[in-house]
Design brief:
With about 500 residues, this protein is α+β, with helices and mostly antiparallel strands. The chain has helices at about 1-20, 50-60, 70-75, 90-100, 110, 130-135, 145, 150-155, 165-170, 185-200, 285-290, 300-315, 330-335, 365-370, 395-400, 430-435, 500-510, and strands at about 80-85, 120-125, 175-180, 200-210, 235, 245-250, 270-280, 385, 390, 415-420, 490-500. The protein is globular, with a radius of gyration of 23 Å. The structure holds delta-meso nitroheme (N7H).
């Protein structure tokens, strides 16, 4: 508070001469960015320009100045800190939230042009325990959120709880700050600023630093695959959907908007539920599995046959090219072309979608989490906006040589997974339980698809149960390649509500 007050005094002092003497140069009120705080890999759908978004949102009646910036932006962060906190003084927190934090919260509209972007984008979201602590008692209409993620573990997500980070298994996480910028220095400076403003009303429970991977791996997750290509186009935000991109109602992601069928408190409008997961990736083990089980296409080298197996488990090559369009050989030009890289739906003239796995296995991660034409009519109910970022360092030489992930916690790597939706039970939890972990999904196929080879578990909560995804070998779709271990290990997470800026002002702040 004092810090903000001093800044205010300094700013108004700087303004004084301009008011008194009209001919002096106008003061520079705020340094403008010259480079974006977001990354922009060619393969990913471009964000709308500020003008395009203004037109689209006006048509749909969406207020982009009121919606927190992370929700609609997707996987384009460069550095992002997840700072999980406990509220120790609710009254002080609420007072400082309105006076000091709210002006720092970054709405969607600010992120769309470099010169309106802040140095560090700041978003905030609250767990149900956080709402309870703040005395906000309204039912937001989502039982997954109100029960918390730990409650979902055994019955729904199939995690092995002993792998959970203790912070997520406890009861003290009330909220999370998401701080995103292009440098860690900016992120750390903004964290200090936030902590100063909040004057000890919160304590840190846990934090996770996310970072885009270096060099030509920017935009790729730790297994090496380009990520974030197939996020949906949201009506009222994206003006021109890309070929093959699913166009979905804003109410699937934002409470109270068109397409949200649940009754909510009025103040919750334009908020979104954030499902956070710390998903560890065992990269050396994954790479070894691909080499040991490499396919046997005679026209490919051994390395290419290993890559092919990975691509079929994922549904895309590492470049991002979809195997449905590039079944045997990677196509980096296709991968980098957003006009083509999402334009497929698993149906091909002359092929039966219930039997054909020559293009894409039924079990591929991409197909399990969005079967596209595999469901008729095409599913429009169970979708998320993915907005995560990789965390942890690159694989070390010692890990590569031993084909084993280090047990040193500072070398843990994975995906800080973030999914936004207006209903967690229809969004993230649905995708994980009903689609990814369900060996029979999608139904009506000639052979049982099996669980998702990347994120699927058998739902038992027991690690490393053998999985038998279907169709991984295009030459013999009946051949079962058994996966004996998990390459993705859930380290836990929590469900949060990311309120609109006006809700922060009118309902959360004092
Ligand atoms: Fe997945 N990966 O990087 O390997 N995911 N995912 N995911 N995922 C996708 O098309 C990955 C996870 C979805 O519309 C791609 O954007 C990893 C969870 C959905 O066609 C890649 C992890 C859930 C899609 C990855 C992980 C999902 C999708 C292709 C965990 C939900 C879009 C890039 C560590 C429960 C499907 C792209 C569509 C795509 C990866 C987790 C869901 C490369 C490593 C937990 C809906």
């Amino acid at each position: 508070m004092k810090f903000a007050f001093v800044l205010l005094l300094a700013a108004s002092a700087a303004l004084q001469p301009a008011f008194c003497t009209p001919h002096v140069l106008p003061p520079v009120l705020k340094p403008r960015r010259t480079n974006s705080l977001l990354i922009d890999p060619a393969a990913l759908p471009a964000l709308p320009s500020a003008q395009q978004a203004a037109t689209a949102s006006a048509d749909a009646g969406l207020n982009l100045t009121d919606i927190q910036g992370d929700i609609l932006i997707g996987m384009k962060k460069n550095k992002e800190l997840f700072f999980f906190f406990n509220i120790v003084n609710s009254t002080l927190f609420r007072t400082q939230l309105g006076s000091g934090i709210l002006p720092l919260i970054t709405p969607t509209s600010q992120l769309l042009a470099v010169d309106t972007q802040p140095t560090t984008a700041v978003n905030i979201a609250f767990s149900q325990r956080g709402l309870d602590t703040l005395g906000i008692t309204d039912d937001l209409g989502d039982t997954s959120f109100s029960n918390g993620q730990l409650d979902n573990v055994a019955s729904i997500l199939g995690d092995e709880t002993s792998n959970w980070e203790s912070a997520f298994a406890g009861t003290s996480i009330h909220g999370v700050f998401l701080l995103a910028s292009d440098t860690l220095d900016n992120v750390n400076a903004t964290l200090l600023q936030v902590q100063n403003i909040l004057e000890g009303s919160i304590t840190e429970v846990y934090s996770l630093q996310g970072e885009a991977r270096p060099g030509d791996q920017q935009g790729h997750e730790h297994f090496g695959f380009m990520d974030g290509i197939s996020n949906p186009a949201v009506t009222g935000f994206a003006l021109s959907p890309l070929p093959g991109q699913q166009v979905l109602d804003p109410g699937l992601f934002l409470l109270g908007e068109t397409g949200d069928t649940v009754t909510r408190p009025a103040w919750a409008k334009d908020g979104s539920f954030l499902a956070f997961r710390q998903l560890q990736q065992r990269v050396p083990e994954f790479n070894k599995f691909l080499v040991d089980n490499a396919l046997s296409n005679p026209n490919l080298t051994a390395d290419q046959n290993a890559e092919l197996l990975g691509a079929r488990m994922m549904g895309r090559w590492k470049s991002g090219a979809p195997v449905d369009l590039a079944p045997t050989v990677d196509d980096p030009v296709l991968a980098a072309d957003p006009q083509r890289n999402n334009n497929f739906n698993y149906s091909h003239p002359g092929f039966d979608i219930t039997t054909d796995q020559t293009h894409c296995p039924f079990s591929a991660h991409l197909r399990k989490t969005n079967p596209r034409a595999g469901l008729t009519p095409e599913n429009t109910a169970n979708h998320i906006i993915r907005a995560g970022i990789p965390y942890g360092p690159e694989v070390t030489d010692a890990e590569s040589a031993s084909n084993t992930s280090s047990t040193d916690p500072s070398l843990e790597r994975g995906l800080a997974f973030v999914a936004y939706q207006s209903d967690i039970s229809n969004g993230f939890a649905f995708l994980q339980q009903i689609w990814a972990n369900n060996a029979k999904f999608p139904g009506g196929k000639a052979s049982e698809p099996g669980v998702d080879p990347i994120i699927g578990t058998d739902g038992s909560g027991i690690a490393d149960v053998a999985r038998t995804p279907s169709g991984l070998d295009p030459d013999d779709p009946t051949r079962i390649i058994t996966i004996e271990q998990d390459f993705v290990v859930s380290r836990g997470g929590e469900y949060f509500f990311s309120p609109s800026l006006s809700a922060i002002q009118n309902t959360f702040a004092l």
